[in-house]
Amino acid sequence: MDGSPLTPEVVIDEARLVLRTLLRKDLFGERIRLKEVDEAIAKSLSIPFSDYCGFLNKQGYVRVDQLAGLIEMTAGGTSIAQGGEDPEFNARLARHFSRELTTGVSSRPARPDSHSGSDLSRTGRTNLSSLPAAVGGQDRDRPMLIMDDVIDRRYRREELIGTGTLGTVNCARHLALGCPVALKEIRSVFQFASYLRRDEIVQRLRATVEAHARLSHPGIVSFIDQNVDREHPYFVMTLARGGNLRARLQAEEGQRLAVPNAVRVLLQLTYALEYAHAQGVLHLGLKPENVLFDAQGNAMLADFGMSSITERRDGDDQTPVLVGGGAVGYMAPERLQPPRLPGMPAALSTASPAVDIYALGVLFYEMVTGRLPGRRSPLPSEAQPEIPRGFDDVFDRMTRDELTERYASMSDVLDGIYRAFPADDVFQPRTILLWSSDPRPPALPLAPALESTAGGTKAGSDDGSGGRSGDRSKTEIVSVTDARLRPKTEAVKSGAGPVRSDDTKADTERPKRRPPPPPPVRK
User: Fold this and answer.
1) Under a CB-based contact definition with an 8 Å cutoff, are residues 170 and 163 in contact?
2) What value does the mean pLDDT take over residues 310-320?
3) pTM for the whole thing?
4) Maximum alpha-carbon separation in the chain
5) pLDDT of 73 strictly over 80
6) 106-160 pLDDT, tens per residue?
7) At what angle do helices 34-41 and 8-22 cross, to 10 degrees?
8) What distance in Å separates the CA atoms of residue 383 and residue 193, rounded to the nearest whole number?
9) CA 21 to CA 36: how far, in whole Å?
10) Mean pLDDT of the chain
């Protein structure tokens, strides 16, 4: 102990020394035991090794198995040990050991890089002064690929799922629950939308995420958590194990889906959008990358409203269109050349369900033909004979340039789909049915539905008989893998298991119990 001052630089150097030591396979082999590392490095540290180990484990630079007494490096820790620069690493160290640093002095032992006679361990092992700056032949200036594996002490970032124009999506693990989730970090938006202040982008991002998080529907990806106050804001969603629609199209011959599968996806997305519109939430950015699939192959929508975060709302019509974002081919004409309504910014005057209806029509055309529609493209039934000619009119009304000629609501789109396709194309084996609205609503609703921004109906509205008016089905179709389920004889209610067909009768069809007689009155 030489009583030298304890400074942030010393703590940083010692923490890096610990990480570099953990890479020494010639000392510890493949399985690194905590006791052996402590014996090897204790005399070279000002702060106990257990304290450094606790910090590194908490921040995700190492993983510690206390029961087995083992420690292993993570990708983030390896990068730091190999000379990677990480400002967050330094700042976190200073905050974590602030109490030790406030004293300014520590009984600090001789460092191996300043006292060549110091041994690494009590057993006379190799001196750390000979440890190379770059371990394993790696270049010291090699850029760091992963800065930190753990975010907010709650999620551990794992393999990369994909990258987009606004950020990256990783598979992550919820540390408290141990379950896999999807973690999306917003990185590029601040550079792209340089015409907006950072605090304005953050405010829009928070509002967009909160609006999406309020949506609860089988066809919409659920939000779990968010933090938009970080340098790179992030939000956490349920993990869609089935990938996205773009990947499925690319994997198919001709980059198109079989017509029955495409119709199924169309119905699932239409029901999801009908629900979201009834809650006053528009998507405004439909594209194959935002259509995800769960493990059973059911379609789910993600990223509601994300495309509107970078729009100008100051009266300037010249909002840049992010061509590389992949959504331009699905944009309604009014989004590309927005008409101005008096006293309203162009970006807001075009926000209506008709925007999502147009994009959904284009999306379905791509699913069944493998290409986007153009002015002279054949109609769906001409490009794909399996599609009934009756659907051509539905597609035409979904993708009209004039708003007054386009469908006004997703409910109208559903009516058109059910009229165009035979029942056998809609209700197929290997499916179960979900109620699209509750046939037995609770006496006290949990929350009132919000009106649609375009005057749509409220969620769960009906004609007084417990279901939607019109001649189309009252159920949503969701694919499952169990071929034993038969759609015409079994149903699955929201939040319930399979029930017999005779259990789905309305309350009005069941015999009511006679009320008990009144108690006798004593005179």
Assistant:
1) no
2) 60
3) 0.59
4) 108
5) yes
6) 444 444 343 333 333 333 333 333 333 333 333 333 333 333 478 888 999 888 8
7) 130
8) 39
9) 11
10) 74
Residue at token pair 């889906």: 257
Distance CA 23, CA 32 (A): 9
Note every long-range contact of 439-448, with CB atoms under 8 Å and residues 24 or more positions apart, other chains counting.
439/466, 439/467, 439/474, 439/504, 439/506, 440/466, 440/506, 440/507
β-pair type (180-186, 234-237): antiparallel
Confidence check: pLDDT of 363 > 60: yes
Tokens of 160: 């990369």
* Rounded Cα gap, residues 320 and 30, in angstroms: 53
pLDDT band at 313 (very low <50, low <70, confident <90, very high): low
**Beta strand ranges found along 1-109 (DSSP E):** 32-33, 62-65, 70-73
CB neighbour list of residue 41: distance below 8 Å, 6 or more residues apart: 17, 18, 21, 49, 120, 121, 128
Rounded Cα–Cα distance for residues 53 and 38 (Å): 10
Residue 314 Cα distances to 78, 163, 311, 333, 344, angstroms: 47, 30, 9, 21, 9
Going from the C-alpha of 344 to that of each of 203, 260, 318, 355, the distances in angstroms are 20, 42, 14, 17
Quickly tell me which residue has 């982008």 as its tokens: 201
Question: CA–CA separation, 284 vs 310, rounded Å?
Answer: 12
What values do phi and psi take at 292, rounded to 5? -110, 165
First to last CA, the chain: 98
Q: Which two tokens stand for residue 333?
A: 């004409």
Counting residues of the chain whose pLDDT is more than 70, the rounded percentage is 66
Q: What percent of the chain has pLDDT over 90?
A: 30
CA 465, distance to chain mean position in Å, is: 37
Single-letter amino acid code for the residue at 293: F
Q: How far apart are CA 274 and CA 278, in angstroms?
A: 6
Phi–psi pair at 243, nearest 5 degrees = 75, -165
